[in-house]
Amino acid sequence: MAAPVPISEVKGNARENRTAAHSHIKGLGLSNGVANTSGGGFIGQAAAREACGLVVSLVQKKKMSGRAVLLAGGPGTGKTALALAVSQELGTKVPFCPIVGSEIYSAEVKKTEALMENFRRAIGLRVKETKEVYEGEVMELTPEEAENPLGGYGRTISHLLITLKSAKGTKKLRLDPSIYEAIQKERVRLGDVIYIEANTGVVKRVGRSDAYATEFDLEAEEYVPIPKGDVHKKKELVQDVTLHDLDVANARPQGGQDIMSMMGQLMKPKKTEITEKLRLEINKVVNKYIDQGVADLVPGVLFIDEVHMLDLEAFTFLNRALESPLSPLVILASNRGLTHVRGGENLPPSPHGIPPDLLARLLIIPTHPYAPDEIRKIIETRTRTEGLTVAPPALEKISQLGEKVSLRYALQLLAPASVLAKVSGREAGRIEVEDVEECEGLFLDARRSAQGLNESKGFIA
Ligand SMILES: Nc1ncnc2c1ncn2[C@@H]1O[C@H](COP(=O)(O)OP(=O)(O)OP(=O)(O)O)[C@@H](O)[C@H]1O
Ligand SMILES: [Mg+2]
């Protein structure tokens, strides 16, 4: 294998945020292992939350290896939300990798390969590196211009003058113009605290100096004190990457300015390049870093929703992967009852469509449907996080829909109803009953949709 890519050059491959519907969930909301009626954004579902809390302590005591968790319950009972909360309880920066069972079927990549990739997305590595940096509050930021060497009237930036102040003194730096771009990208202004890595020129904005904290500012800003010590110093930097990030960074053909590699950068990275051999090599390097105390392993959470979509082959792989020393916490979720395992239609049906040998390794946590007042509170919490104003009668109406139809349906109506409310030009975009009724007319729920189809004998008339 080629020399491993330095970790500081590994970019995260985080996928688009799939957890937006759960942004109100901040944790399991337990105190001393007992669920508060509402805590961490959670309402009700107390037993399941307490069980999840136990799982968190088992993971922290490293007693979960070889086992996994199954959240079993009806649609919209908070299974996905619970899995997310478990990862939050395990700590910030713990990787959370949510997938859906059917995601592993692709024409390009083998099923087990796709599963392996997601296992590695769920295992983090925290790397501590001591680097030479210039750190301080920006006191001066002046680009020095020069005549454009190519002629014409244009001007180019020849140098960047920057003055940084720390508790012990100030330092004036004359930097390469390439750093100016990095500074613009980070939106650095006068009065910000930044650091510049001496060897790589990487610029990081730490926050706004707290000397400006009294300044009237509506933006959410993080105020930080002026850095201690000298401007030029050694600083311990911490970087979080996942094993999958490392795989990708090492698999991608390196360098080259020719057109093929330019195209390669534009196109999606080819998945088949990551071989088993490469992974083994990376594991070796990772283990070495861990032994040397340079890095810590941060096992995260792999959440497989709709687990009945996996087939026998995938389940066998899961069994084996759970026992590997590099395994994240695996949380499965299913809203199915007794059903055939995919690929095992000739075998007797199995609970949740999961084969018995895997079932035996699972801690099964049931989730239950919500009572009407819990539904109302969940909807209220959601309106607050989405920043919506809802008239009390409209809230009443939405809660009733949540009871009669489903919690999902009610939550889904919030966004279109708020659009209607804004269009109608009402003060502060307040949602009224008429908006909810209009949405109800515009969007069918599953039951009404099925009814309509039954009447039309298989055709959409
Ligand atoms: N106890 C709760 N407290 C607060 N919000 C909740 C609670 N339970 C569910 N929610 C919210 O309700 C919505 C639906 O829940 P979720 O997606 O977790 O259900 P699910 O059990 O995964 O359903 P499915 O089987 O359809 O996947 C989400 O926006 C979730 O954040
Ligand atoms: Mg779900």
Please supply descriptive tags for the structure shown above.
461 residues, alpha/beta, Rossmann fold, OB fold (Dihydrolipoamide Acetyltransferase, E2P), Helicase, Ruva Protein, domain 3, eight-stranded mixed sheet, five-stranded parallel sheet, 14 helices, 19 strands, binds adenosine-5'-triphosphate, binds magnesium ion, chromatin regulator, transcription regulation, DNA damage
Topology:
Layout: E1 30-31, E2 34-35, E3 38-39, E4 42-43, H1 46-60, E5 68-73, H2 79-89, E6 96-100, H3 111-121, E7 123-147, E8 155-166, E9 169-175, H4 177-185, E10 192-197, E11 203-209, E12 223-224, E13 232-242, H5 243-251, H6 259-266, H7 276-292, E14 295-299, E15 301-305, H8 312-322, E16 329-334, E17 338-339, E18 350-351, H9 356-359, E19 362-367, H10 372-385, H11 392-404, H12 407-423, H13 433-442, H14 446-455
Parallel strand pairs: 5-16, 5-19, 6-15, 11-12, 15-16
Antiparallel strand pairs: 1-2, 3-4, 7-8, 7-10, 7-13, 7-14, 8-9, 10-11, 17-18
Helix pairs in contact: 1-2, 3-8, 5-7, 10-11, 10-12, 11-12, 11-13, 12-13
The chain binds adenosine-5'-triphosphate (ATP) and magnesium ion.
Adenosine-5'-triphosphate (ATP) is lined by residues 21-22, 25, 41-45, 75-81, 305, 335, 378, 381, 407-408, 411.
